[in-house]
Model the fold of this input.
Amino acid sequence: MDYQALSPVTGHSVVISVVDGRISTIVPSACDSDDGLWVAPGFVDLQVNGFAGVDYNSPETSIDKIGCSIDAQRTTGVTRLYPTIITGSNTNIRKALTNLARAKHELSNGTSIAGLHLEGPWISPHDGPRGAHPIEHVRAASIAEFEDFQGSAEGQIRLVTIAPEVEGALALIEYLSDQGVVVSLGHTGANAEEIHAAVDAGATMSTHLGNASYSMTRHNANHIIEQMACDQLYAGFIVDGIHLPPSFVKVAIRAKTPEKSILVTDAVAPAGCNPGSYRLGHLEVQLSDDGSVRLVESGRLAGSALRMDYALNNLMRFSGLSLARSLATATVNPARAIGLEGRQGFLIPGELADLVLFQYNSETLEIKIIESVV
Ligand SMILES: [Zn+2]
Done:
């Protein structure tokens, strides 16, 4: 199968040949494509809690519904995702992980699940850093409990968000790193020493940097700036225009560099649905017309209704990054941060043929065709 489209790297037309689900060759095309479509690798979302009315955190969520949510995300350009399970009871976390692990090997589109992201329960108990995670289930880090979770997940947990200041965190970070599980710092109020100790123990990422923080911190010395300045850490950002002001996005991307920056949606079940009231577990949330998802009780943000294609459009607008560099934050950067096989390059022979074809008018991109080896 051949695809002809414009390359974001060169701006010129190329022909991509796909053989056995991999990119075989990419050669310049003698003529421009008729439809003016552009091509990129499929998007990789390392943090998604649910989509299209489907809640990955609910122990009752069926395998079929998980499949529907994957199809819905494909229309936004996402071909590989890390369903994300947040802080909860041991029983509920294990059930949710089991559902997703089953979905991965039972569904026809299950290979889109590239791994699982466990965000919590080993996070800061303090208001602010804890975000919308339920306080009653926040606890000290435990290697034994992780092993319990990893058993339920059939070994699919590939990314864990931890606050390095909680009891037992450093030992767990070392343990996870030794096992090849990526450790991301998040829902944390750690000081500089704690952040650097976590990096020395093997942490390589920051989770939705700039969110889940104290409302008041020292303006020029705090855990956000400390992580921004740490070159070893990739950083995830929720660029929905609600979680982070445009100026923060611009400054943070420059500080981290575009190569270490990763777009995540942090989408929750109401994403892709109409505004209204929804339930996330036992919590009531409101999806508003402005696209925010907030706990009804406190007004606190509880994930997003963001789509990855919209996140890319926001990023280009907020940061002024080129199309190619913006696309990298949703493709090769997340793939490199977690070592995703077959997705380490931007449209090069040998890579998995996850392809997104889209229209682009110098301000916005619009997804038209998705191809991926599912
Ligand atoms: Zn979070």
Q: What stands out?
A: The longest helix spans residues 90-106.
